[in-house]
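dude i think i finally got it to work??
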Amino acid sequence: MKRSLSILLLFSLVAVQGFAQGTGRLEEEAEIVIRKDRKIVLPPAIRNFEKIPQLPVSGTTTKQSYLFKKFNYSLNPLEPFFQTANYRSSKPATDFTSNYVKAGYGNFGTPYFEGYLGSPKSEDYVFNLYVRHLSSRRGPVFDENSGNGKTEASVGGKFFNGLNTISGSLNYTQQKVHFFGYNPVLDLSSDAIEQKFSRFSANVAVEKTERDQDLNYSFETDWVFFRDDLEAKENKFNFDVTADYKLSENIKVSMKALAILSKRQDEAIDVNRNFLNLQPRITYAGNGFSLAGGINFAGDNDSGNGMSVYPVVEGSFSVNTGLRVYAGYEGTVTMNTLESSIAQNPFLQAAFDLRNTEKESDIYGGVELDLSKGLRLNAGASLASLNNLQLITNAASDSSRFEILYDQGPTDRLNIFSEINYEQEGQVRSSLRFDFYNYELTSTSPNLAEAWHLPTFKTAFHNTFFPLENLSVTADVYYLGGLKALNGETGEAFDLDDILDLNLGGRYQLNQQFGVFLKLNNLFGTNYQRYLNYPSRGIQFLGGISVSF
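look at this
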């Protein structure tokens, strides 16, 4: 230490002397005092031990990905779907979390609650809890006699071990409706026409985490227990396995297997319904084109047809970077269940006829076109031959309930469609789809003269706008035309009015934790009938607040 101080003192004297000689002036003598007892004391460092909050999904900016698929136009007249648009802001997303609570209230006596609670962010696991409730005490007619409601709850989690992602969940849903399509002269109590559905399911899945390798795979199983108040029961055990392997840069083979073991009990019906569909494929991807081929080995144990082989082939050709032309042919079998049929129409009578739908053949083709940046078009057509297509009519024994009829032979279905998607990031996101359908039935029976309750025209127009900071606005339009209905009790056929449904919604984020939302449904106020004798509610509104934490 003394040596270091001596050297420092020597350099200081030399520097002072050199400076004095350079200026030609005589410097005064100075005394240098060195204090060894002085200590530099710094304040304690501030350390933040708070956990890093999870980032919201909507905070991530990604390039728009377009997925063309079929839309569900069921327009359930009892249960309006209130959903607020994802929040977007230029503010840093690090102050947000994925946990939230939403609560609101609307006309027709409609309380709404939704909540999500997730585990702290981890690279190894994630757990979550989700609940949602939406009900309306009054409906479009007869007040409480046409009320409805739905409650959902789910707890789940995922575990990541580097190679695989293991996930599981327990889910419960309860739904309540009323058979309110009865003659107004009748005086019925709400309890006498009430129908409830309950569903409990357990799900386990395993999939490869990194899916960019030569070999990819996934396995999923669902155990579903479905009940209603009419003593109908359905237990299903679903097993879904997929795998694909890349043989070379151009060739890939894949296999998808779906097996369903089910049991249905409904009044005098007590039957086991099993289903299997094996889908091996081989795909060749060349320079600007691809070709895929394989089979669907599908069938069941309750149709009497056993297992059948259906060929599958699809080819596509990219004319340039913005134009793709595709065409294909396939056949398969789709399993219809008690649950899936009730999801389509919750007013079905007990012990209705239930069969699987066979697609003998489907010839399809189309074109995908990038018109400009953010603007994409898809258009095409399909001609399919279907056996056991579900046709829903008012039941012959009770017109307030519905039954399912089937054509005696193949039903030819022509579908011409077009779809356009547009996005200007941070400003607008839109999608428009149009479908035209034409059905030709084999049967000459009067009760199968038309494809009952299946529309000829379908249109869905979805829009999300971001006009101001912290504000998002949604505008959706649905149109269904050409609906025909049959009252099986009277044998009278009806042309139902076209459905035009306009929905508007908005959300404003007050700050990083609190937001408000408002949703308006069926702004034209028409009591349209998706199914005969079941009008929908008129103008509906729901408003509320949301809290993130």
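The two ends are 57 Å apart (CA to CA).
im so relieved honestly
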